[in-house]
Amino acid sequence: MRTPLCDTFGIDYPIFAFTPSEHVAAAVSRAGGLGVLGCVRFNDPDELEQTLSWLDENTDGKPYGVDIVMPMKIPTEGKSVDLQALIPDEHITFVEQTLQKLGVPPLPEGEGREGVLGWLHSVARSHLDVALKHRPVLIANALGSPPVDVIEKCHEHGIKVAALAGAAKHALSHVANGVDIIVAQGYEAGGHTGEVASMVLQPDIVDAVGPDVPVLGAGGIGSGRQVAASLALGSQGVWTGSIWLGTEEYQNLQSNAGWTTAFTRATSSDTVRTRIYTGKPARLLKTKWTEAWAEEDAPSPLPMPLQNLLVADAHNRINASGDPDVISMPIGQIVGRMNDVRPVADVMADLVAEFEETVAKLESIRK
Length: 367
What we know:
The chain is an alpha/beta fold. The protein contains 13 helices and 11 strands. It has helices at residues 4-9, 22-30, 45-58, 89-101, 121-131, 148-156, 168-177, 198-209, 224-232, 257-264, 288-293, 306-321, 344-366; strands at residues 15-19, 34-38, 64-68, 138-141, 160-165, 181-185, 191-192, 215-218, 237-240, 271-274, 282-285. Mean pLDDT is 91; it is low at 76-80.
């Protein structure tokens, strides 16, 4: 399982792992892939600084990447703007009444935190500034092309830039802006995702950008067979995410019985694509929380970043309650294959072993 991207990044396998957990990112890098730390959860640049310092020290010198959330179009975010004041009372009332109906208790006094400010352009800029003080080899942007000056700054530091695309036209736009690697993320993926499935999307994007632009296949990838399929479609590697939520290392970030029960019992049909998480279409685990937002009397989700600010405290309460019937979790359709909790190293080993078995089987068929 070796493609030109392995030489580009100094990795053994072209398996890129997006994760909000530095423990998962480090374990993937140590196992020969490229761990990519999602930075959106860091409201405090000092906390990100400490986390990246930890990554520097716990990856055995192996490379890693970071993922930021930065729209190319720079929004107006003057400090005088009170974002909370832009959230309608109707939405606030709906959230509180829904939590009461679902039996979600409030957090203990003094617990909880403000909404995830990493969705704001200004905060994403601070994430970039912190990252450039460390040694990431890749900066990925979850909202397409970052501003051109950001791309140029990364290149000045010798860092490659990747951007997610859900359509060939988006991929072409990324390339025109100077993006180095396209992540072709299909409809099956967790989190922000488009409307075209991976089997169609990957060859569309590979053909559109041409042989000189590497493409990573993403969406619905959780086995070696699916890695092989992605490479067969023309991608030079894979971008994975959901499968790492079911690892032992991830429990350092999110650990309760309800969380584990929710994803280990789910099938591939138990997800929904909705705007209720961030304001943009994202795939989540289907629960009573997502169903409440789909009812006729529910308000329409707010645009990013207001929707996240609206539901941030609710998500903290839901996750703390540990109720698997309510828990809020961005996750892809691959959840149907996540039936137990395993170490990252075991997941990586299985991906590689099944890939090799699959390629060998195809070779025997060709003969």
